[in-house]
Amino acid sequence: MSRIRNPTWENDENLKADIQKYVLQNLTRKEVLDFLGRDYPQYAWSLPTLSRRMAYFEIKYVDYETDLKVVEMAVKEEISGPGQLLGYRSMHRKLREHHQLAVPRGLVYDVMTKVDPEGLESRGKVGQKKRHRGPTGTFTSLGPNHTYSGDGHDKLMDFMNNTFPLAVYGLQDVFSGYILYLKLWPSNSDPKLIARWYLEYLYESRGNCS
Protein backbone atom coordinates (compact mmCIF):
# COMPACT_ATOMS: atom_id res chain seq x y z
CA MET A 1 0.00 0.00 0.00
CA SER A 2 1.55 3.29 -1.09
CA ARG A 3 1.67 6.30 1.17
CA ILE A 4 0.01 9.59 0.21
CA ARG A 5 2.50 12.40 0.64
CA ASN A 6 1.35 15.73 2.02
CA PRO A 7 1.56 18.55 -0.53
CA THR A 8 4.60 20.79 -0.18
CA TRP A 9 4.12 24.47 -0.88
CA GLU A 10 7.86 25.10 -1.39
CA ASN A 11 7.76 23.51 -4.87
CA ASP A 12 4.36 24.87 -5.89
CA GLU A 13 5.12 27.24 -8.79
CA ASN A 14 1.42 28.09 -9.25
CA LEU A 15 1.25 29.23 -5.63
CA LYS A 16 4.33 31.40 -6.09
CA ALA A 17 2.92 32.96 -9.28
CA ASP A 18 -0.43 33.73 -7.64
CA ILE A 19 1.14 35.35 -4.58
CA GLN A 20 3.29 37.47 -6.88
CA LYS A 21 0.24 38.44 -8.93
CA TYR A 22 -1.81 39.50 -5.90
CA VAL A 23 1.08 41.48 -4.41
CA LEU A 24 1.64 43.35 -7.68
CA GLN A 25 -2.08 44.19 -7.72
CA ASN A 26 -1.52 45.98 -4.39
CA LEU A 27 -3.92 43.74 -2.52
CA THR A 28 -3.55 43.81 1.23
CA ARG A 29 -2.17 40.77 2.99
CA LYS A 30 -5.62 39.93 4.32
CA GLU A 31 -7.06 40.08 0.81
CA VAL A 32 -4.24 37.89 -0.51
CA LEU A 33 -4.92 35.46 2.31
CA ASP A 34 -8.60 35.21 1.34
CA PHE A 35 -7.75 34.27 -2.25
CA LEU A 36 -5.06 31.79 -1.24
CA GLY A 37 -7.26 30.12 1.34
CA ARG A 38 -9.89 29.63 -1.36
CA ASP A 39 -7.57 28.40 -4.12
CA TYR A 40 -5.03 26.49 -2.02
CA PRO A 41 -6.99 24.87 0.84
CA GLN A 42 -4.46 22.03 0.99
CA TYR A 43 -2.06 24.37 2.82
CA ALA A 44 -2.50 25.93 6.24
CA TRP A 45 -2.82 29.73 6.12
CA SER A 46 -2.41 32.67 8.47
CA LEU A 47 -0.90 36.14 8.13
CA PRO A 48 2.44 35.09 9.67
CA THR A 49 2.46 32.02 7.40
CA LEU A 50 1.85 34.20 4.35
CA SER A 51 4.73 36.49 5.34
CA ARG A 52 7.08 33.52 5.76
CA ARG A 53 6.12 32.09 2.38
CA MET A 54 6.54 35.46 0.69
CA ALA A 55 10.01 35.66 2.18
CA TYR A 56 10.78 32.12 0.98
CA PHE A 57 9.70 32.99 -2.57
CA GLU A 58 11.49 36.37 -2.30
CA ILE A 59 8.28 38.25 -3.07
CA LYS A 60 8.17 41.85 -1.87
CA TYR A 61 5.54 44.57 -2.02
CA VAL A 62 8.32 47.04 -2.82
CA ASP A 63 11.65 46.00 -4.31
CA TYR A 64 14.16 48.78 -3.77
CA GLU A 65 16.86 46.87 -5.68
CA THR A 66 15.11 47.01 -9.07
CA ASP A 67 17.49 48.09 -11.86
CA LEU A 68 16.80 51.73 -12.72
CA LYS A 69 17.44 51.08 -16.42
CA VAL A 70 14.70 48.44 -16.45
CA VAL A 71 12.26 50.94 -14.97
CA GLU A 72 13.25 53.61 -17.51
CA MET A 73 12.75 51.17 -20.40
CA ALA A 74 9.30 50.20 -19.14
CA VAL A 75 8.27 53.84 -18.68
CA LYS A 76 9.51 54.75 -22.18
CA GLU A 77 7.61 51.82 -23.64
CA GLU A 78 4.37 52.94 -22.01
CA ILE A 79 4.85 56.62 -22.88
CA SER A 80 5.42 55.76 -26.54
CA GLY A 81 2.32 53.57 -26.59
CA PRO A 82 -0.96 53.14 -24.69
CA GLY A 83 0.38 54.76 -21.52
CA GLN A 84 1.23 58.12 -23.03
CA LEU A 85 -1.52 59.90 -21.06
CA LEU A 86 -0.87 58.23 -17.72
CA GLY A 87 0.06 60.23 -14.65
CA TYR A 88 2.73 58.86 -12.35
CA ARG A 89 0.23 57.10 -10.03
CA SER A 90 -1.40 55.29 -12.92
CA MET A 91 2.01 54.57 -14.41
CA HIS A 92 3.11 53.08 -11.09
CA ARG A 93 0.11 50.72 -11.16
CA LYS A 94 0.79 49.86 -14.80
CA LEU A 95 4.40 48.95 -14.08
CA ARG A 96 3.39 46.71 -11.21
CA GLU A 97 0.57 44.86 -12.92
CA HIS A 98 1.83 44.65 -16.51
CA HIS A 99 5.62 44.78 -16.16
CA GLN A 100 5.91 42.96 -12.80
CA LEU A 101 8.05 45.78 -11.39
CA ALA A 102 7.44 46.23 -7.67
CA VAL A 103 9.04 49.66 -7.58
CA PRO A 104 8.30 52.55 -5.18
CA ARG A 105 5.89 55.16 -6.52
CA GLY A 106 8.42 57.91 -5.84
CA LEU A 107 10.89 56.22 -8.16
CA VAL A 108 8.30 56.15 -10.94
CA TYR A 109 7.76 59.87 -10.46
CA ASP A 110 11.51 60.54 -10.65
CA VAL A 111 11.90 58.44 -13.80
CA MET A 112 8.94 60.13 -15.51
CA THR A 113 10.37 63.52 -14.57
CA LYS A 114 13.62 62.53 -16.26
CA VAL A 115 12.12 60.78 -19.31
CA ASP A 116 9.13 62.99 -20.08
CA PRO A 117 9.01 66.13 -17.87
CA GLU A 118 6.84 68.13 -20.28
CA GLY A 119 4.27 65.37 -20.61
CA LEU A 120 4.17 64.76 -16.88
CA GLU A 121 3.57 68.43 -16.20
CA SER A 122 0.86 68.75 -18.84
CA ARG A 123 -1.04 65.71 -17.55
CA GLY A 124 -1.40 66.94 -14.01
CA LYS A 125 0.65 70.10 -13.47
CA VAL A 126 3.15 67.85 -11.73
CA GLY A 127 6.55 69.41 -11.24
CA GLN A 128 5.27 72.98 -11.09
CA LYS A 129 6.26 74.99 -8.06
CA LYS A 130 3.46 75.31 -5.58
CA ARG A 131 2.08 78.78 -5.18
CA HIS A 132 2.66 80.26 -1.77
CA ARG A 133 -0.50 80.84 0.17
CA GLY A 134 -1.57 84.41 0.63
CA PRO A 135 -3.14 85.95 3.70
CA THR A 136 -6.43 84.13 3.06
CA GLY A 137 -4.63 80.77 3.21
CA THR A 138 -3.20 81.23 6.69
CA PHE A 139 -4.63 81.33 10.17
CA THR A 140 -3.42 82.90 13.36
CA SER A 141 -3.70 82.04 17.02
CA LEU A 142 -4.50 84.68 19.61
CA GLY A 143 -2.56 82.91 22.35
CA PRO A 144 -1.89 79.61 24.13
CA ASN A 145 -4.80 77.11 24.02
CA HIS A 146 -6.66 79.23 21.47
CA THR A 147 -6.08 76.96 18.46
CA TYR A 148 -5.01 73.32 18.32
CA SER A 149 -3.70 71.39 15.33
CA GLY A 150 -4.04 67.60 15.13
CA ASP A 151 -2.50 65.25 12.59
CA GLY A 152 -1.57 61.61 12.09
CA HIS A 153 1.62 59.91 10.93
CA ASP A 154 1.47 56.36 9.58
CA LYS A 155 4.88 55.86 7.94
CA LEU A 156 5.81 53.38 10.68
CA MET A 157 3.07 51.13 9.33
CA ASP A 158 4.98 50.55 6.08
CA PHE A 159 3.43 49.46 2.81
CA MET A 160 -0.30 48.61 2.88
CA ASN A 161 -0.40 49.36 6.64
CA ASN A 162 0.27 45.74 7.57
CA THR A 163 4.00 45.26 8.00
CA PHE A 164 4.27 47.13 11.30
CA PRO A 165 0.77 48.36 12.18
CA LEU A 166 1.49 51.20 14.59
CA ALA A 167 0.32 54.71 13.82
CA VAL A 168 1.00 58.02 15.57
CA TYR A 169 -1.50 60.80 16.23
CA GLY A 170 -0.61 64.07 17.92
CA LEU A 171 -2.11 67.37 19.00
CA GLN A 172 -0.15 70.64 18.98
CA ASP A 173 -0.79 74.08 20.36
CA VAL A 174 -0.51 76.42 17.35
CA PHE A 175 0.64 79.48 19.28
CA SER A 176 3.56 77.89 21.15
CA GLY A 177 4.21 74.83 18.99
CA TYR A 178 4.01 72.72 22.15
CA ILE A 179 3.07 69.07 21.59
CA LEU A 180 0.09 68.44 23.84
CA TYR A 181 0.03 64.67 23.36
CA LEU A 182 1.20 61.85 21.11
CA LYS A 183 -0.71 58.60 20.79
CA LEU A 184 0.68 55.34 19.43
CA TRP A 185 -2.07 53.00 18.23
CA PRO A 186 -2.84 50.43 15.48
CA SER A 187 -4.98 53.08 13.81
CA ASN A 188 -5.12 56.87 13.58
CA SER A 189 -8.01 57.21 11.13
CA ASP A 190 -10.98 56.30 13.32
CA PRO A 191 -12.79 59.58 14.09
CA LYS A 192 -14.32 58.13 17.26
CA LEU A 193 -10.85 57.23 18.53
CA ILE A 194 -9.43 60.67 17.70
CA ALA A 195 -12.40 62.36 19.38
CA ARG A 196 -11.93 60.22 22.49
CA TRP A 197 -8.26 61.21 22.77
CA TYR A 198 -9.18 64.87 22.41
CA LEU A 199 -11.95 64.69 25.00
CA GLU A 200 -9.64 62.83 27.39
CA TYR A 201 -7.06 65.59 27.00
CA LEU A 202 -9.67 68.29 27.65
CA TYR A 203 -10.81 66.48 30.77
CA GLU A 204 -7.30 65.93 32.11
CA SER A 205 -6.19 69.53 31.40
CA ARG A 206 -9.46 71.36 31.95
CA GLY A 207 -7.75 73.77 34.32
CA ASN A 208 -5.34 74.87 31.57
CA CYS A 209 -7.71 75.17 28.60
CA SER A 210 -9.47 78.41 27.75
TrEMBL record:
Annotated region described as Disordered, given as residue ranges: 120-145
Superkingdom assignment: Eukaryota
Name listed for the protein in its UniProt record: Clr5 domain-containing protein
Lineage summary: Eukaryota, Metazoa, Cnidaria, Anthozoa, Hexacorallia
